Amino acid sequence: MTENIAGKVVVITGASSGLGAETARHLVRAGAKVAIGARRLDRLEALAAELGLPKEAAFQVDVTDRAQVQAFVDGAVAIYGRIDVMINNAGIMPLAPLEMLRLDEWDLCIDINIKGVLWGIAAALPHFQAQKSGQFINVSSVAGHTINPGGAIYSATKYSVRVISEALRQEVKPYNIRTTILSPGAVDTDLPASVGAPGVNEAISGFYQEYAIPADSFARCVLFAMSQPENVDINEILFRPTAQAR
How many structural domains compose the chain? Predict the structure, then answer.
Protein backbone atom coordinates (compact mmCIF):
# COMPACT_ATOMS: atom_id res chain seq x y z
CA MET A 1 0.00 0.00 0.00
CA THR A 2 3.03 2.31 0.03
CA GLU A 3 3.96 1.89 -3.63
CA ASN A 4 4.25 5.13 -5.64
CA ILE A 5 4.42 7.26 -2.47
CA ALA A 6 8.12 7.66 -1.71
CA GLY A 7 9.40 11.05 -2.82
CA LYS A 8 5.96 12.55 -3.45
CA VAL A 9 5.35 16.03 -2.05
CA VAL A 10 2.08 16.19 -0.09
CA VAL A 11 0.42 19.35 1.27
CA ILE A 12 -2.11 18.82 4.08
CA THR A 13 -4.51 21.38 5.55
CA GLY A 14 -5.95 20.84 9.02
CA ALA A 15 -2.75 19.00 9.94
CA SER A 16 -2.29 20.04 13.57
CA SER A 17 -4.24 17.07 14.96
CA GLY A 18 -6.59 14.23 14.10
CA LEU A 19 -6.86 13.04 10.52
CA GLY A 20 -4.29 15.47 9.14
CA ALA A 21 -1.61 14.78 11.73
CA GLU A 22 -2.03 11.00 11.56
CA THR A 23 -1.92 11.09 7.77
CA ALA A 24 1.30 13.11 7.89
CA ARG A 25 2.84 10.45 10.14
CA HIS A 26 1.89 7.63 7.79
CA LEU A 27 3.10 9.51 4.72
CA VAL A 28 6.49 10.33 6.21
CA ARG A 29 6.95 6.69 7.18
CA ALA A 30 6.15 5.78 3.57
CA GLY A 31 8.85 8.14 2.29
CA ALA A 32 6.75 11.15 1.26
CA LYS A 33 7.80 14.76 1.72
CA VAL A 34 5.14 16.62 3.65
CA ALA A 35 4.12 20.23 4.26
CA ILE A 36 1.62 20.72 7.06
CA GLY A 37 -0.72 23.64 7.63
CA ALA A 38 -3.28 24.68 10.26
CA ARG A 39 -4.09 27.56 12.58
CA ARG A 40 -2.33 26.11 15.65
CA LEU A 41 1.31 26.73 14.87
CA ASP A 42 2.60 25.32 18.17
CA ARG A 43 1.08 21.92 17.39
CA LEU A 44 2.35 22.02 13.83
CA GLU A 45 5.89 22.77 14.95
CA ALA A 46 5.75 19.92 17.46
CA LEU A 47 4.53 17.56 14.73
CA ALA A 48 7.24 18.75 12.34
CA ALA A 49 9.87 18.07 14.99
CA GLU A 50 8.39 14.62 15.68
CA LEU A 51 8.49 13.72 12.00
CA GLY A 52 11.86 15.25 11.23
CA LEU A 53 10.38 17.76 8.77
CA PRO A 54 12.11 21.03 7.98
CA LYS A 55 10.83 23.66 10.41
CA GLU A 56 9.72 25.80 7.49
CA ALA A 57 7.44 22.96 6.32
CA ALA A 58 4.99 23.89 9.11
CA PHE A 59 2.75 26.75 7.97
CA GLN A 60 0.26 28.67 10.07
CA VAL A 61 -2.71 28.94 7.74
CA ASP A 62 -6.39 29.75 8.04
CA VAL A 63 -8.13 28.07 5.11
CA THR A 64 -10.84 30.74 5.05
CA ASP A 65 -8.14 33.16 3.86
CA ARG A 66 -7.43 32.57 0.18
CA ALA A 67 -4.08 34.38 0.29
CA GLN A 68 -2.86 32.26 3.20
CA VAL A 69 -3.74 29.03 1.41
CA GLN A 70 -1.96 30.24 -1.72
CA ALA A 71 1.12 31.15 0.32
CA PHE A 72 1.02 27.71 1.96
CA VAL A 73 1.04 25.83 -1.33
CA ASP A 74 3.57 28.13 -2.97
CA GLY A 75 5.76 27.85 0.13
CA ALA A 76 5.68 24.06 -0.06
CA VAL A 77 6.73 24.24 -3.71
CA ALA A 78 9.56 26.60 -2.78
CA ILE A 79 10.83 24.11 -0.17
CA TYR A 80 10.43 20.87 -2.10
CA GLY A 81 10.43 22.00 -5.74
CA ARG A 82 6.96 20.68 -6.62
CA ILE A 83 3.64 19.47 -5.23
CA ASP A 84 2.18 16.06 -6.04
CA VAL A 85 -0.83 15.73 -3.72
CA MET A 86 -3.10 18.36 -2.17
CA ILE A 87 -5.13 17.06 0.79
CA ASN A 88 -7.95 19.48 1.60
CA ASN A 89 -8.69 18.16 5.07
CA ALA A 90 -9.53 21.16 7.28
CA GLY A 91 -13.12 21.11 8.47
CA ILE A 92 -15.57 21.72 11.32
CA MET A 93 -18.86 20.06 12.28
CA PRO A 94 -21.16 22.57 14.05
CA LEU A 95 -24.23 20.34 14.28
CA ALA A 96 -27.41 22.02 15.54
CA PRO A 97 -31.08 22.25 14.57
CA LEU A 98 -31.74 25.16 12.22
CA GLU A 99 -34.23 26.67 14.68
CA MET A 100 -31.35 27.41 17.04
CA LEU A 101 -30.22 30.03 14.47
CA ARG A 102 -26.52 29.64 15.16
CA LEU A 103 -25.81 31.94 12.23
CA ASP A 104 -22.14 32.59 12.90
CA GLU A 105 -21.52 28.84 12.90
CA TRP A 106 -23.30 28.56 9.54
CA ASP A 107 -20.98 31.19 8.09
CA LEU A 108 -17.83 29.60 9.49
CA CYS A 109 -18.81 26.09 8.40
CA ILE A 110 -19.35 27.27 4.83
CA ASP A 111 -16.11 29.27 4.84
CA ILE A 112 -13.98 26.38 6.11
CA ASN A 113 -15.65 23.32 4.63
CA ILE A 114 -16.47 24.70 1.16
CA LYS A 115 -14.34 27.77 0.51
CA GLY A 116 -11.34 26.20 2.21
CA VAL A 117 -11.48 23.32 -0.27
CA LEU A 118 -11.92 25.71 -3.17
CA TRP A 119 -8.93 27.80 -2.10
CA GLY A 120 -6.84 24.63 -1.85
CA ILE A 121 -7.87 23.61 -5.35
CA ALA A 122 -7.17 27.07 -6.72
CA ALA A 123 -3.70 27.16 -5.15
CA ALA A 124 -2.56 23.71 -6.30
CA LEU A 125 -4.26 23.39 -9.69
CA PRO A 126 -1.88 25.61 -11.70
CA HIS A 127 1.10 23.61 -10.39
CA PHE A 128 -0.59 20.34 -11.35
CA GLN A 129 -1.51 21.66 -14.79
CA ALA A 130 2.04 22.81 -15.48
CA GLN A 131 3.56 19.44 -14.57
CA LYS A 132 0.71 17.40 -16.11
CA SER A 133 0.27 15.35 -12.94
CA GLY A 134 -1.08 15.59 -9.42
CA GLN A 135 -3.81 14.39 -7.10
CA PHE A 136 -6.45 16.16 -5.06
CA ILE A 137 -7.75 14.39 -1.98
CA ASN A 138 -10.79 16.27 -0.69
CA VAL A 139 -12.39 15.30 2.61
CA SER A 140 -16.16 14.95 2.65
CA SER A 141 -18.02 12.78 5.19
CA VAL A 142 -20.67 10.15 5.62
CA ALA A 143 -22.76 13.29 6.21
CA GLY A 144 -22.14 14.10 2.56
CA HIS A 145 -24.24 11.02 1.74
CA THR A 146 -26.87 11.09 4.49
CA ILE A 147 -28.88 13.79 6.23
CA ASN A 148 -29.98 13.77 9.86
CA PRO A 149 -31.74 16.32 12.09
CA GLY A 150 -29.26 18.95 13.18
CA GLY A 151 -26.98 18.29 10.24
CA ALA A 152 -28.42 20.58 7.56
CA ILE A 153 -25.48 22.97 7.29
CA TYR A 154 -22.74 20.41 7.84
CA SER A 155 -24.26 17.93 5.38
CA ALA A 156 -24.75 20.73 2.83
CA THR A 157 -21.05 21.59 3.00
CA LYS A 158 -19.97 17.98 2.69
CA TYR A 159 -22.33 17.33 -0.22
CA SER A 160 -20.74 20.40 -1.80
CA VAL A 161 -17.27 18.90 -1.45
CA ARG A 162 -18.46 15.87 -3.41
CA VAL A 163 -20.07 18.03 -6.11
CA ILE A 164 -16.98 20.21 -6.47
CA SER A 165 -14.71 17.18 -6.58
CA GLU A 166 -16.74 15.40 -9.24
CA ALA A 167 -16.82 18.48 -11.48
CA LEU A 168 -13.09 18.88 -10.95
CA ARG A 169 -12.51 15.22 -11.86
CA GLN A 170 -14.21 15.71 -15.21
CA GLU A 171 -12.50 19.00 -15.98
CA VAL A 172 -8.87 17.99 -15.33
CA LYS A 173 -8.64 14.98 -17.63
CA PRO A 174 -6.37 16.82 -20.13
CA TYR A 175 -3.80 17.32 -17.35
CA ASN A 176 -3.55 13.74 -16.03
CA ILE A 177 -4.75 14.90 -12.60
CA ARG A 178 -6.44 12.47 -10.21
CA THR A 179 -9.20 13.32 -7.74
CA THR A 180 -10.24 11.43 -4.63
CA ILE A 181 -13.04 12.09 -2.15
CA LEU A 182 -12.66 10.58 1.31
CA SER A 183 -15.92 10.28 3.24
CA PRO A 184 -15.31 9.03 6.79
CA GLY A 185 -17.85 8.21 9.45
CA ALA A 186 -17.08 8.57 13.15
CA VAL A 187 -13.29 8.75 13.50
CA ASP A 188 -11.49 9.64 16.72
CA THR A 189 -10.47 13.29 16.20
CA ASP A 190 -11.11 16.75 17.65
CA LEU A 191 -14.06 17.23 15.28
CA PRO A 192 -16.79 16.71 17.93
CA ALA A 193 -15.29 19.66 19.83
CA SER A 194 -16.57 21.93 17.04
CA VAL A 195 -20.15 21.08 18.04
CA GLY A 196 -21.03 24.00 20.28
CA ALA A 197 -24.81 23.71 20.57
CA PRO A 198 -25.96 22.78 24.10
CA GLY A 199 -27.34 19.28 24.25
CA VAL A 200 -26.10 18.41 20.78
CA ASN A 201 -22.49 18.59 21.97
CA GLU A 202 -23.08 16.02 24.69
CA ALA A 203 -24.96 13.66 22.37
CA ILE A 204 -22.26 13.76 19.69
CA SER A 205 -19.46 13.33 22.22
CA GLY A 206 -21.19 10.25 23.58
CA PHE A 207 -21.71 8.85 20.10
CA TYR A 208 -18.04 9.28 19.22
CA GLN A 209 -16.90 7.78 22.50
CA GLU A 210 -18.95 4.69 21.75
CA TYR A 211 -18.32 4.23 18.03
CA ALA A 212 -15.29 6.19 16.76
CA ILE A 213 -12.45 4.29 15.13
CA PRO A 214 -8.80 5.45 15.20
CA ALA A 215 -7.56 8.21 12.89
CA ASP A 216 -5.15 5.81 11.22
CA SER A 217 -8.19 4.31 9.44
CA PHE A 218 -8.33 7.54 7.43
CA ALA A 219 -4.58 7.65 6.87
CA ARG A 220 -4.63 4.14 5.41
CA CYS A 221 -7.29 5.24 2.92
CA VAL A 222 -5.09 8.15 1.86
CA LEU A 223 -2.15 5.83 1.27
CA PHE A 224 -4.33 3.41 -0.67
CA ALA A 225 -5.59 6.14 -3.01
CA MET A 226 -2.12 7.60 -3.50
CA SER A 227 -0.38 4.29 -4.06
CA GLN A 228 -2.31 3.33 -7.18
CA PRO A 229 -0.59 3.40 -10.59
CA GLU A 230 -0.93 6.69 -12.45
CA ASN A 231 -3.62 5.23 -14.72
CA VAL A 232 -5.85 4.31 -11.76
CA ASP A 233 -7.99 7.07 -10.23
CA ILE A 234 -9.70 6.18 -6.94
CA ASN A 235 -12.56 8.67 -7.00
CA GLU A 236 -14.22 8.08 -3.65
CA ILE A 237 -13.84 6.03 -0.49
CA LEU A 238 -16.78 5.94 1.93
CA PHE A 239 -16.06 4.22 5.22
CA ARG A 240 -17.53 3.95 8.72
CA PRO A 241 -16.98 2.11 11.97
CA THR A 242 -18.45 -1.35 11.50
CA ALA A 243 -20.92 -0.64 14.30
CA GLN A 244 -22.13 2.71 12.87
CA ALA A 245 -25.59 2.28 11.34
CA ARG A 246 -25.93 5.67 9.59
Answer: 1
Task: Please name the residue ranges forming H helices in 57-199.
Answer: 66-80, 103-110, 116-131, 152-171
Domain presence at residue 205: yes
Q: Give yes or no for a contact between 109 and 157, defined as CB atoms under 8 angstroms apart.
A: yes
pTM of the model: 0.96
pLDDT tens string, the chain, 246 residues long: the values are 688 999 999 999 999 999 999 999 999 999 999 999 999 999 999 999 999 999 999 999 999 999 999 999 999 999 999 999 999 999 999 999 999 999 999 999 999 999 999 999 999 999 999 999 999 999 999 999 999 999 999 999 999 999 999 999 999 999 999 999 999 999 999 888 899 999 899 999 999 999 999 999 999 999 999 999 999 999 999 999 999 998
Domain span at 49: 9-238
In a domain, residue 1? The reply is: no
CA dihedral 69, 177, 216, 79 (to 10 degrees): -50
Residue 192's contacts (CB-CB under 8 Å, 6 or more residues apart) are 93, 201, 204, 205, 208
Specify the 3-state DSSP secondary structure of 177: strand
CATH of the domain at 152: 3.40.50.720
CB 32 within 8 A of CB 228: no
Q: Kindly list the catalytic residues.
A: 154
**245 within some domain:** no
- 4 found inside a domain: no
